[in-house]
Amino acid sequence: MQHTEIIKLLGREPSLVEVTAKGWVRSFRSNRFIALNDGSTIHNLQCVVDFSAFEEETLKKVTVGAAIAVTGPLVESQGQGQKVEIQVSKLEILGEADPEEVKLTILSPKRHTMETLREQAHLRVRTNTFGAVMRLRSKLAFAVHEYFQNNGFYYMHAPIITGSDAEGAGEMFRVSALDPNNLPKDENGKVNFKEDFFEKETNLTVSGQLEAETYAMGLGKVYTFGPTFRAENSNTSRHLAEFWMIEPEMAFCDLDGNMDLAEDFIKYVIKYALENCLDDLDFLENRLLQEEKNKPEAERSEMALKEKLQFVLENNFKRVSYTEAIEILKYSKPNQKKKFKYLIEAWGADLQSEHERFLVEKHFKCPVILFDYPAEIKSFYMRLNDDGKTVRAMDVLFPGIGEIVGGSQREERYDVLKQKMADMGIPQDELYWYLDLRKFGTAVHSGFGLGFERLVQFVTGMGNIRDVIPYPRTPGNAAF
Ligand code: 4AD
Ligand code: MG
Predict the structure, then answer these.
(1) Best mutation site among 162, 205, 207, 258 for ligand 1 pocket (most ligand atoms within 8 Å of CB)
(2) Are residues 221 and 81 in the same domain?
(3) Atom of ligand 1 nearest to the CA of 449
(4) Is residue 114 part of a domain?
(5) Phi, psi (degrees; rounded to nearest 5) at 238
């Protein structure tokens, strides 16, 4: 018999027609009630068995983690918590799970630390928390595409293997087909990459921006949504070595238009989650409330998860220049009392996440967009302002997350860009094609990058970025 997803069955009215469900056993109580989950929803299907009607041998195999198929009519549930349940007339064991072995895994129904869950990343999606997070991740990805497709953007696939460093920060993973034990050398004794697969040095992309700019200068409005890689040694709850980035790029758009887009886009996907993922959000909200009960009152968040999402929808992001932000930070309590790890002494200082979080969480108490940063602390491609010392950059800062978006208006003037590259030591021969854009029909254009995992973190309330991507890659860890 064809099986039906549990999410569909739970939405049906009771009926005598027999249905089949397939899934994994979450629990089996009193030799009578099986809680079955198939991943289609956070909710389990209650399956009621009359144990006298089945072989003992079969019932013994209904253990936590086993895959089974059940058939029977959907009847009105006698118990609480669900409208319907299945009255099992046929029970089939599809894949057994030895209870002795299950006991040693995170499938066993007891509390496991997040670290243990990470070590069993191949099983963790079968828990309620990770099921909810990964369903949300999928829905959010869909909302991202929907937003751009509905707003006149074309999806552009930027290359994963590139020959340039888009951020000019040198945090790249090499790509090579050379044998590390037998490297070809040139006359100077250096590795001869002419003999490598691409006949040059290549790396995994850190950002699709530069290529996206070339496409925006032909298609008008484009966005990328793909994996990006950074070999930065940051062991924090906000950094991954492999993460997914969304990068819109728009011709004929300045920094104000760019900020408008970032705000509108983020609000759209958050609204989508509230409208389409309520069951999972309810679960995650409760999970956070439970977790916070163990914290001292002062450390608990002021808002519950959905309230926090609603708050973002209903309030304008506060737009503040870097210069204003430095003034606020300089005279702030934690700076005066030397509580910041990095004290803000003068204009030009790079902002650390402690400063960003102070601005968002303590000072403004809402999402903040900082703009017009000092040229020195930002990438080479950002448009220089008339003051000659700041660039048209913007970062969107979120509560609990810090920087969620980084973007800018791009330097469209050939001479200014060339000079900037020379000053910052960016190789112009490698990026001749990027300079070409400024020769052939240059135009004002802007874009930004949003770290998808940081967005998923914000929406799900998960504290660690390793828990919103199926198989996290971080310094010292590429398990699975
Ligand atoms: O600020 P970033 O480095 O900007 C760029 O890469 C630009 N090329 C984007 C553009 O203008 N098209 O990165 C953009 C965003 C950050 O705001 C952050 O959300 C995320 O990418 N991000 C990371 N997320 C997880 N792990 C990391 N190591 C990240 N580095 C950046
Ligand atoms: Mg940035």
Answers:
(1) 207
(2) no
(3) 9
(4) no
(5) -125, 0
